[in-house]
Here is the input.
Amino acid sequence: MADGSSHSAPSRVRPDLLPRALLAVSALVGLYFSLGYVHHAPLLWIAPVPLLLLALELNLAAAACTVFIVVYLALTNIFVAAGYTLESQNLAVYLGYGVDRENFYQPVVWYAATVTLLVLAVRAALRERPHWTSLWVYPLGWVAFEYLSALVRGGDAVSSLAGTQLDFLPVVQIVSLTGVWGVTLLATAVPAGIAGAWHLRYQPRQAGLAMLVPLALLGAALVYGGWRLSGAEGTRQVAVGIAAAADPFDGPADEADEASATPTSDEILDRYARLVEQLAGAGAKVVLLPEKCVFANVQSRDQVHERFAQMARSAEVTVIAGVGQRGEPGRNQALVFGPGGQLLLTYNKAHLIAGLEDEFAAGDQPGWIPGTDPLWGIAVCKDLDYPGWIRSYGREGVGILFAPALDFGSDGWLHARSAILRG
Here is the structure.
């Protein structure tokens, strides 16, 4: 006989499901805003913590699936920033994954798979040997991944985590000692230390060392960075103006097309002449113009050179201009004209982007201008992604490096700063 009381069925929801879901969501949000083209640099130092903690709690299959999905979704910020447009295709080409639409997501898939393997590796190490040294599988593995990726790409370190940290000036000074790998090591060791300390919390000595060692290394880097920055105040300064008058992707024509809104080379050069005069009037001694700010062919080459020489003479400044020189062979050049209009240097870009710059032949010589104090060096955009190439400028004693550049827009902030860091 019923007693009139109601009985609810026992809940089948696991009590640990909500905390784990919160860890996954927090990891996704943190990584989304600390990687790729939409990022806030400080988040990188804590964003992996919930992901590492979650992997340590889940079984192997669940950990692998969760980590891969979280990292993959976080890295879609690349395509959100590019709007899933032709710019996404350009970014895929830039990253070396070809021009076909099916290749758009290859960089994200491979990156997510690599991070998954790193997280699973530190998970296995800490479970097999609950010791503070086991957590170093994660930062050391990440540095090895970046280093090997750079070797495979001919020395291109564009995907290094260190590029996100340029605004953290005291930390990035260690690049002068370790290259970008030192910044990556610190930025991955700190979150690994936090996660490792929590996992080893019932072993106070191990937990303490797990947290103390990464923080001690970070502290040492900050001390070194502060010391190095304090010595920068006495360096000689040069007033530099920067101007961009047209989008080189518009493809300025060699012949005027009355039916097209695309500016001709003469119109672009007129714009730059006005901007150079304005910047000189504001006190600039050097005016830097973009990569491929104008194109020239064999017939128009001398005319284009003379226009830049006139700009330099008229404004009494040094003009550094990027020119797309078409011909056999074509060259992506940076031209340096002195205040008297003389051509001081013709530099040919050494590292071209396959699929986007196939019409050009690569240069093979670094560029610097003897007699300048400090010594001036010249490179072009993608050249800055190759630490080994830029290191040759340092060995020569270059004090200022000028680099006409051209980015796709959404990646401009990240690539410019990561290139500066590697330079």
